[in-house]
Structure formats: structure tokens, C-alpha cells
């Protein structure tokens, strides 16, 4: 997940005949489902697309800590507090892990983070929405991590080896987060007061549509998808993944006893899928452009953390050098 | 504390001190979520916070059993006001810059480490087992915070200045941590708690050693000390910490589940 509208730099997909011998060999490996490893030759477009996608994913893990950090200081019980802290720690770990996968492609973590802070690169639009009540900690786990998993389960088969392996590890932890999130909502709906139940419905109302937007624009508006699919960086189209997510989520929604803010959501016997209403794409593009409720705050917080920590990192470097010097002098 | 304090009363009080200090420092570290100076530090801070809140839960659970007045571990954490909280003044101090965050951590970790090392040997099995698990975690906390104090002290001119300022500002909260009151004396005599004199000597020894290695100047022996946490007289910060931490439990008192 967490990657929307990733540029590939390709206007159209080349045919095998149009490719150079290296490109052809590369594409045949992809077609044969052989994983590409860091030391293998790869087209520049493939490398750059992956760097964009993995860095976007890593940035999303890190920025995604903020909406949860907003409630970790207010978690209502010891158990919920510990769960949320563990989840946040996992996300920091995912971020580190993904940045490492990205660095195997020759990119530099600090440079990519600078680009994020300068507003040059994206992270998932979902994290630009505020977390306004406690139930949001359940909904984020259930819907946001849920949407991420749908995407990431497919990405376990992505063609780039280090990314694929990162996804396998991350998926395990995300599934756990999703179950925990759903349990928060289920407990509130089953044993909560009227006010707590309203909290849950209000939370779902706010996160429903933004979660569907996480899969990116519809296929006919997704110019980069074709090349990404040919390289098997992407394995399923945005609309396919969105439909999968909706189909698996609606029964869970009904089990909670809640509703979605979509009057057109209903089972279509003929298609064997749920039909759903039109997404507000204007809102999606606005948020991507920086005009979401929290875009400004999220980036400011991250930038202040890293800029404000410059003296800390500088001190650590200076100390390490002095220690090294001492050891050399002693030797 | 009256002179007629029983060992049982002392123990309940002491467990709340341990739990509350863990809880409040864990809470302070939670405030830093997403704001650490590096992603690795993000992980480490949350890791330490998780350990502390986990330890707090263990102590609260035991305290709730001994107090036995119908209150749960959650009630003890989320339904007591500041004057009933017994955490050290040190841990409620604001995060400040990273030198303050690490200085506060180091002063507390050093106390925590020697305290747990003693509690591991307590004849009360419950205490010994909670302490044994915690001691392993705190050994790492102490190593990490000592390392940061040294990095800052002996790093750059700026970091040295910041670290010295943090040490000087936080020093006044160290006194009460290593001065035993009736509660601690009672438990020591009962063979449960640490030897107060030994604890103070160990703490001072380690702190001096680390500060010296960090090229920092330890504050004077007769520096003025701020006291009060052991009888519920806190700094102004604690009220705000609890207002945030206990918000949901206070706003929805009828809620039976979360």
C-alpha cells in the first residue's frame, strides 16, 4: 500500500522487439517470475520507479505514526496503550526496513527524506486526515491497515526481491494490527455505552471514503499502471484491489452493526461483488496536492523532528570519531 | 506516614511509587512519538516506553490486589489525581531538548537499575519475578541513556553545553530519589526493599563515573534539592500530564469497556 500515482517515466510499454538485448533479458526474467536482486542489471526506469514507490511506502509508515501518536498519550487503558505503542514501534521498524530496501537501489535515505520535507514526494493521502476520537485508533487499524494489507499481500509477489521480502515480513505484523483495530471497534459496539457506539460510527463515516482512496485513481486515470504492471512492480490494478477490499470489508462492517456513508453500497448478485458509489476524486487530488486537513501539520512535524535533531546526530558523529581516534591512539 | 505504618501499608505505597514512576516516564516518552531526532531513536524511545508502561502494569496489578478495595490496575493508573500519584518528580519533568530527555532518563535509569537489582532478591516472589523481568529491560535502558549522556557531553561544543545545562537543571530532582523515608526504611528492615545507604552510594558512584567520562561537571554536593513527590506534592507538570493521560476515563466515567 501506501503508494499512489507512482511515476514510471514511461509513456507506453515497449514491445520485446523494441527493447535492447539487456532490456529483453530483463523482461524475460520478469515474465518468468524470477526475482530481480540488487546486483542484477535493471532498466533505469525500473530502478527509479521502485525508488519512488518504496520511498513513498517508507515515508507513509513514518508519517503514519503521527495520527496514532495523537492518541497514544490518551489511550484509555493500560492494555490499549501498550497495544498502540507496540503498533507505532512496528511502524517505525517498517519505515527503517523499507528505507533499507530502497537503499539497495542506490538511493540515499537522507536525500529521500529531504525531498519529503520539501514537499517534492508523496506519502499516502490517508495520513492527512485527522484522528478525532478514540475509535479512530480502531478504524485506522481495521480500514487503513486493512487496505494496506490488500495491497501488500499482492506486493509480496512483486518482482524486486528486497521489496518482496520486506512485504512478507510487514504483512504479518499488519494483519495483527488489523485484527487488533477491529477488536477495539467490536468491543465498543458490543459492550460500549451509546456515546462509545456513536464514536465508532462517526469514525467509520470519516474514514470510509479516504480508505477507498488509498488504492489510487481508477484504472482509466492511472497512466503509470501499465508499465508498473509489465515490470510486475504492481501486480493488480487499483480498481481490482479496491473491489477486493470492499468485498472483504462490508461483511465485517455489518458484523459490527455499523453502516458505511455510501447509499449506493449494495451486493450485486450478477457481478458477485459489491457495487459502490463514486469516489470524490476532487478531494483525492486536493489532498495529494497538499490541501488535505493535516498535510501542513504532518510535514511540519516531521521536518521539525529531523531539523531539530541535527545537533543530536552531529554530536553522535563527533563522539564516534573521538572514540575511534582514542582507540587508534591506544593501539 | 504515621509511625504505626504496617509493612503491608508500606509495601502498597512503595508499589505505587514504582508503578507511577514507570507510568509517568512512559507517558512522557509517548509524547515524543513522531518527533525523535532520528528514526532509530523513534524505535528506541517507543521501546523503552513500552517496557516502562508494561512494568507499570505489573506493579499496578499487584498493588490493586494488595489494596483490595475493588479498584483495578486501570483505576489506579487512570482514576487517581495528582496528589495521590507517587512518581518521582524527575520523571514528570518536560521532555525539553534531547539532552534533557536523556539526562532525565539517565538519572532515573541509574536509580531504577540499582533498585530493581535489589528487588530481584526480595522474599516476596511476586516482587522478585516482576523485578527480574524489569531488571533485564532496565539494564538496556541504562546502557543507552549513559551512552547518550557521554555522546552529548563529549560530542560537540553545542551538545556539551546542552548536556551540562540539562544536568544542572535536573539535579534538584535527584535528591528525593535516593533519600529514604519511612516507607523505604520499613521495607528495608523487612528485607524487601534496597538498603537506602547502599542505593544512594551506588547511584552517586555511577552518576559521577558517567558524568566524568562525559567531561561534564557534577553539581556541588550541597546543591539544593526539591522534594515532595513521596507525599504527593508534585511540580505543576503532573496535573497536565494526568489531564491528558486520563482524559477518556474522566470524560466517559460510565464506560465499562474500551
Word description of this protein:
The complex is a heterodimer of chains A (331) and B (258). Chain A is mainly alpha-helical and 331 residues long. Chain A has one domain: Ferritin, core subunit, four-helix bundle (Ferritin, Up-down Bundle), CATH 1.20.1260.10. In chain A, 65% of the residues lie in helices and 2% in strands. Chain A has 13 helices and two strands. Chain A has helices at residues 21-31, 44-63, 65-72, 78-103, 109-117, 135-155, 161-191, 194-213, 225-230, 238-256, 281-288, 295-308, 310-330, and strands spanning 266-268, 273-275. In chain A, strands 1-2 form a two-stranded antiparallel ribbon. In chain A, helix 6 runs parallel beside helix 8. Chain A is globular, with a radius of gyration of 22 Å. The mean pLDDT of chain A is 94. By secondary structure, chain B is mostly helical. Chain B has helices at residues 7-30, 39-67, 73-78, 89-92, 98-119, 125-153, 157-170, 182-189, 196-213, 237-245, 247-251. In chain B, helix 2 (39-67) packs antiparallel against helix 6 and helix 5 (98-119) packs across helix 7 (157-170). The longest helix of chain B has 29 residues, at 39-67. Chain B is globular. The interface between A and B is large, with 51 and 48 residues.
Overall number of structural domains of chain A: 1
- Rg of chain A: 22 Å
Q: Can you summarize the main beta sheet of chain A?
A: 2 strands, antiparallel
Helix content of chain B: 55-70%
What do the pLDDT scores of chain A average to? 94
Query: Oligomeric state of the chains?
Result: heterodimer
* Architecture per CATH nomenclature, i.e. the level-2 architecture of chain A: Up-down Bundle
Secondary structure: helix percent of chain A = 55-70%
CATH superfamily of chain B: Ferritin, core subunit, four-helix bundle
Identify the overall geometry of chain B.
globular
Order of helices and strands of chain A: HHHHHHHHHHEEHHH
Question: Shape of chain A from CA axes?
Answer: globular
Total strands of chain B: 0
Side by side, the strands of the main sheet of chain A go: 1-2
Total helices of chain A: the number is: 13
The class by helix and strand makeup of chain B works out as: mainly alpha
InterPro entries (chain B): Aromatic_CoA_ox/epox, Ferritin-like, Ferritin-like_SF, PaaA_PaaC, PaaC
Protein name (chain B): Ring-1,2-phenylacetyl-CoA epoxidase subunit PaaC
GO biological process, one term (chain B): phenylacetate catabolic process
Organism (chain B): Marinobacter segnicrescens
Amino acid at each position: 500500500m501506501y503508494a499512489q500515482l507512482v511515476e514510471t517515466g514511461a509513456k507506453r510499454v515497449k514491445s520485446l522487439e523494441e527493447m535492447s538485448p539487456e532490456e529483453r533479458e530483463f523482461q524475460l526474467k520478469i515474465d518468468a517470475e524470477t526475482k530481480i536482486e540488487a546486483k542484477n542489471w535493471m532498466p533505469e526506469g525500473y530502478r527509479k520507479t521502485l525508488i519512488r514507490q518504496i520511498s513513498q511506502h517508507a515515508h507513509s509508515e513514518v508519517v503514519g505514526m503521527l495520527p496514532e501518536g495523537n492518541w497514544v498519550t490518551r489511550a484509555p487503558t493500560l492494555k490499549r496503550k501498550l497495544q498502540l505503542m507496540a503498533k507505532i514501534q512496528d511502524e517505525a521498524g517498517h519505515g527503517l526496513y523499507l528505507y533499507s530496501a530502497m537503499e539497495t537501489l542506490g538511493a540515499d535515505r537522507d536525500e529521500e527524506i529531504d525531498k519529503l520535507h520539501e514537499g517534492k514526494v508523496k506519502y499516502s493521502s490517508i495520513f492527512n486526515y485527522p484522528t478525532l476520537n478514540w475509535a479512530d485508533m480502531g478504524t485506522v487499524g481495521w480500514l487503513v491497515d486493512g487496505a494496506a494489507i490488500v495491497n501488500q499481500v499482492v506486493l509480496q509477489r512483486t518482482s524486486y526481491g528486497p521489496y518482496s521480502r520486506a512485504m512478507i515480513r510487514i504483512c504479518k505484523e499488519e494483519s495483527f494490527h488489523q485484527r487488533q483495530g477491529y477488536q477495539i471497534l467490536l468491543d465498543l459496539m458490543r459492550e460500549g455505552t451509546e456515546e462509545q457506539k456513536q464514536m465508532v460510527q462517526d469514525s467509520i463515516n470519516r474514514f470510509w471514503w479516504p480508505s477507498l482512496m488509498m488504492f489510487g485513481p481508477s484504472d482509466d486515470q492511472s497512466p503509470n499502471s501499465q508499465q508498473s504492471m509489465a515490470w510486475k512492480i504492481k501486480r493488480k490494478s487499483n480498481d481490482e484491489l479496491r473491489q477486493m477490499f470492499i468485498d472483504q470489508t462490508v461483511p465485517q462492517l455489518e458484523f459490527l452493526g455499523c453502516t458505511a456513508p455510501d447509499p449506493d453500497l449494495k451486493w450485486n448478485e450478477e457481478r458477485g461483488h459489491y457495487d459502490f458509489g463514486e469516489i470524490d476524486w476532487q478531494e483525492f487530488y486536493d489532498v495529494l496536492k497538499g490541501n488535505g486537513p493535516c498535510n501542513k501539520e504532518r510535514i511540519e512535524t516531521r521536518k521539525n523532528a529531523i531539523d531539530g535533531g541535527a545537533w543530536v546526530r552531529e554530536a553522535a558523529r563527533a563522539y564516534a570519531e573521538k572514540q575511534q581516534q582514542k582507540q587508534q591512539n591506544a593501539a | 506516614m504515621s509511625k504505626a505504618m504496617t509493612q503491608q501499608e508500606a509495601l502498597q505505597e512503595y508499589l505505587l511509587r514504582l508503578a507511577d514512576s514507570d507510568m509517568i516516564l512512559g507517558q512522557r516518552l509517548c509524547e515524543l512519538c513522531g518527533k525523535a531526532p532520528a528514526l532509530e531513536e523513534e524505535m528506541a524511545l517507543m521501546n523503552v516506553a513500552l517496557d516502562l508502561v508494561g512494568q507499570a502494569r505489573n506493579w499496578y496489578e499487584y498493588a490493586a490486589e494488595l489494596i483490595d478495595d475493588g479498584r483495578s490496575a486501570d483505576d489506579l493508573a487512570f482514576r487517581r489525581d495528582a496528589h495521590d500519584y507517587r512518581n518521582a518528580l524527575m520523571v514528570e519533568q518536560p521532555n525539553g531538548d534531547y539532552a534533557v530527555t536523556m539526562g532525565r532518563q539517565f538519572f532515573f535509569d541509574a536509580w531504577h537499575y540499582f533498585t530493581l537489582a535489589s528487588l530481584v532478591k526480595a522474599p516476596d516472589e511476586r516482587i522478585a519475578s516482576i523485578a527480574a523481568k524489569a531488571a533485564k529491560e532496565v539494564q538496556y535502558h541504562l546502557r543507552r541513556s549513559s551512552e547518550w549522556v557521554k555522546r552529548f557531553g563529549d560530542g560537540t561544543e553545542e551538545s556539551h553545553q546542552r548536556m551540562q545545562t540539562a544536568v544542572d537543571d535536573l539535579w534538584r530532582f535527584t535528591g528525593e530519589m535516593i533519600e529514604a523515608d519511612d516507607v523505604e526504611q520499613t521495607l528495608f528492615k523487612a528485607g524487601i526493599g534496597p538498603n537506602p545507604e547502599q542505593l544512594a552510594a551506588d547511584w552517586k558512584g555511577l552518576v559521577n563515573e558517567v558524568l566524568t567520562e562525559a567531561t561534564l561537571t557534577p553539581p556541588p554536593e550541597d546543591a539544593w534539592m526539591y522534594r515532595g513527590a513521596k507525599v504527593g506534592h508534585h511540580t505543576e507538570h503532573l496535573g497536565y500530564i494526568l489531564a491528558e493521560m486520563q482524559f477518556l476515563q474522566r470524560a466517559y466515567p460510565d464506560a465499562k469497556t474500551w
